[in-house]
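Q: Could you write out the predicted structure for this multi-component system? I'm mainly interested in how the pieces pack against one another.
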Amino acid sequence: MSANLTEQKMSTKLKDLVKKPQILMGGHRMCAGCGAPIAVRQILLGAPENVKLVVANPTGCLEVSTTIYPYTSWNTSFVHCAFENAAATLSGVETAYNSLKEQGKIKEDYRFIAFGGDGGTYDIGLQSLSGALERGHRLIYVCYNNEAYMNTGIQRSGATPMGSWTTTSPHGSNSTGKKENRKDLTAIAAAHNIPYVAQASISHWKDLVRKAQKAFAADGPVFINVLSPCHRGWRFPMENTVEIARMAVQSCVWPLFEVENGKWKLTTKVPKRISVEEYLKPQGRFAHLFKEKNKETLALLQENVDAEWEKLLQLCGEKE
Amino acid sequence: MATSNKVINNQTNQGILNGDNIVINSKALAIVGTDAVSEAMRQINPDVVAAYPITPQTAIVETFSQMVADGLVKTHLVAVESEHSAMSATIGASAAGSRVMTCTSSQGLAYMWELLHIASGLRLPIVMPNVNRALSAPINIHCDHGDSMGARDASWIQLFSENAQEAYDNTLQAVRIAENPDVLLPVMVLLDGFIISHSIDRVEIIDDEAASNFVGEFHSPYSLLDPKNPVTVGAFDSLYGYFFEFKRQQEEAMSNAVNVIKDVGQEYGKISGRSYGLFESVGMEDAEFAFVAMGSAAGTIRELVEEMRSRGIPVGMIKLRVFRPFPAKELAEALSGLKAVAVFDRSNTFAGNMGGPVFIELRSSLYDLQQRPLMINYIYGLGGRDLPIELINKAAGELGEAARSGRVKQIVNYLGLRE
């Protein structure tokens, strides 16, 4: 497959990154305090400067807020087709590029990157994503994961954590919020044995930019799952977006790791671990869990996180 | 080309068209309809094909995959995991400025449905042969037109074929029609499942060079891969945007397609000896009553019409080739003054006994005539039910009776139905 991606030497120093041209321009209509454009900008900072980009979006917050006709916030080529097919659409663009390049009709080097929300990625777009990963297209698929369908107004998705309130997993006298655990999409992507898979968070920008640099260097499909909190759906003050994302990492609810050519590696250690409760407390979507009758769910969440964390440490060779 | 194909005559047909002095180079092959389509695809030599197998289209994907494997085409093939992704990848590849094709049938076309509208809405000149097959349920792999009729309002041009030859000819012409700057709409080439797709037929394949020159090079007006002009494709357009205007432009493009289809059909005649229009008229110059049909049934009806005419019966047939755009004006002219018209539909609208889609649209087209013919609808052949000549003869009897008596006993009829 690809060369050792860690050998790619690009700067992750802020003084260098600020000089890079903007690709997602200001003036878009994403909410103030939204995590998604932070994720997009950090990842695009990892793009090599000598390549052109085609960005794809499935339907979602990012797409509807950045391409309001006749305006566009994308200072590069951009394509949106439907909700469940960004990966398939982009695989067509990449194939066209390969065909036209082979015929000598295109001289420039292009890279292809999709940014989809968790609804368009974990759920309705999973088949399309899996197909594209299996076929080996050289494209990067980024899930900006805000753990629910936010564009349609906070409905549960396969990425929504257990216990979370959403408008389709409300809590009530017979409900403690979402009953089921989220699916482990990062591991599902890794099971495709593609060159590079990573889990990242907007709170750890250096880690994310470095992962993006590796993604652009990979000679095959890449999947990056970036936690991008949504203050509207998670119910916290808009200025706390990055802090909440950081707490997800510190509580091991959202560990940062990568799977490079099959090798799992923890990229951010957690020396001062906080409890799951501490992470959930500032988020209104979990407020009901702090009532006496729902304490069991709270305990179960901590248990699940502990088990997942142990499993990950073993996969990453951090623990026998 | 599959190894089982047999060349009927080893000699190349070299004809000279009257007046035009143009040499036609072609070879006649005995091949099935799917291979006729694959041959056209080989000659079109698209930059990208993304496709997924489904009966009875499968043989097209198989044969074309072999062509790619054998280096007969420059095409990059994307063997996708579903028809939904087939059309999605096709849309992406077309938006990236490449010439792109896919093909499908039935459930596959239905699975593509939302994307059909996106392909036409983005004005992408995609060409897609669809081997007509009934839609489930009950599941049935045989021919009817219910699948493509489900996409009749998707703003795709639809060209129907009577036989394998026409499927081949239509596929080559579809490229030119779709890519015409006044059109820029996707085109569906329709051929009847099994009846055409799996029957061996005599097909004249024109010379590779002539075919290649005919389809020409594709120059995309907007490409994702134009480094100097990055574009946003598929932007969001809402309440205060231009959605309505875009849709009006699509209608305009579909209207423009009428003349483009005629011009391309004439030009194709010069390299093949087979010219095409919006529909074909048989015996219509003096007909008092007529059949209207699409697809392979037209071949059987033609047989009966010719036999009846030899007995002096004033009957004619219109074989509708272009269902989208619907040639309402031209059909009204052709049917004006007739006493009665029988419309054959290989699908139903389930509108409450309103009749099939061809009937409903044709009937509407004739409304403004001073003298409207009486109209009868025959729904036939659903799920591949055979249409033997005896059944058409029965319809002919009822049609003749309507023309004589001036009244229609029953407007919507089901031919070959057990009832």
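A: Regarding packing and overall arrangement: The first strand of chain A starts at residue 52 and ends at 57.
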